[in-house]
Amino acid sequence: MPELVVTALLAPSRLTLKLLRAFIWILVYSAALVAAAAYGCIAFTHVLCRPRRGCCGRPRRTPPACLSDPVLGEHCFLTLKSSGLRLHYVSAGRGKGPLMLFLHGFPENWFSWRYQLREFQSRFHVVAVDLRGYGSSDAPRDVDCYTIDLLMADIQDVILGLGYSKCIIVAHDWGALLAWNFSIYYPSLVERMVVVSAAPMSVYQDYSIRHIGQFFRSNYMFLFQLPWLPEKLLSMSDFQILKTTLTHHKRGIPHLSPNELEAFLYDFSQPNGLTGPLNYYRNIFRAGTGSVLVPWNQLGTQ
C-alpha cells in the first residue's frame, strides 16, 4: 500500500490521540492549580502561625550526628555503569551473607532503614541507597532523567556494581513501586523481595479507575506536576508541611526524635534538594502512566 495512503488512513487516529493527550493535560493542570491553591493556603497558614520562620526553608549547613553514626555502616559512593551517575549508599556486614538492598520512598532517604541496617548486618551485607535525586546521590535536573526504565537500570547497576548476581530487595513507597517493576523485568537479579506499603502499578491503575476518591487523596500528585511552585510550598515556614507529614501521629513515622527529623530535612534543605524527588512524580504523566496515583505514604493516600 502506498505510504501516502497509509498516512491518510492513520491521520484520524493520530489526530484523536493528540486531542486526547491535550485533554488529559488540561485536566492534569487544572487539578494542579486547584491543588496549588489548597496547599498554598496550608503553607501560608503555617507562615502566619510561625512568622519567625519566614517564607523559606532554613538551609541546614551541618548534617545531624545520627547521619554519621558508625553503627549504621560505612558511607560509600558507586558510579553507575549505565548512566555514569554517582549514588550514595550506606553499607554494613560485607562478607556476612547475601546482599540485602533497601530502597526508600518519599519524603525519605537511606536513613529510613536505620533499624534494619542494625538488625540484619550480622547476617547479610546490608546496603541502603539514596535513590537518584536524593541526598548525596547525583540529581539530574531534567524530568526525563527519572523514567521508570532509568530508575530500574540504577538498581541493576547497584547490584552488579557491588559484585552480586542477585539480592534480597526490601522496599517502601516509591522504592517499592520500582521493586515491583524490577522483579518483572530483572527476575534473575531478585532472590527475594519484601515490599512495605505499596502495590504493583497495575493495582493502582485499577483502583484509581474504580474509586474516584483516590484522585482526591492523591491531590498532591497533581500539585507536583507544576514547576518550582511545589518546592516553594513544601519549604515554606522551614519545611513545615514536610515536618507535619513525617511526624503525624497516625500517618507519620512513629517515635521520630528531633534529630531524626533533621536527618530527613537536611538533604531537602540543600539547594535544589526537593527537585529530584519531585521529578519522580513529574514524570508520571509524561511516561503515559497518569492513571497510576503513586502514594505519598505518610499522607495516608491508600
Automatic annotation (TrEMBL):
Pfam families, sorted: Abhydrolase_1 (PF00561)
UniProt keyword Transmembrane, yes or no: yes
GO molecular function, one term: epoxide hydrolase activity
Family in the record: Belongs to the AB hydrolase superfamily. Epoxide hydrolase family.
Chain ranges of the AB hydrolase-1 domain: 98-206
Domain of life from the UniProt record: Eukaryota
SUPFAM superfamilies: alpha/beta-Hydrolases
Protein name as annotated: Epoxide hydrolase 3 isoform X2
TM stretches of this protein: 22-44
Gene3D superfamilies linked to this entry: alpha/beta hydrolase
Keyword Transcription regulation: no
Alphabetical keyword list: Hydrolase, Membrane, Transmembrane, Transmembrane helix
InterPro entries registered for this protein in UniProt: AB_hydrolase_1 (IPR000073), AB_hydrolase_fold (IPR029058), Epox_hydrolase-like (IPR000639)
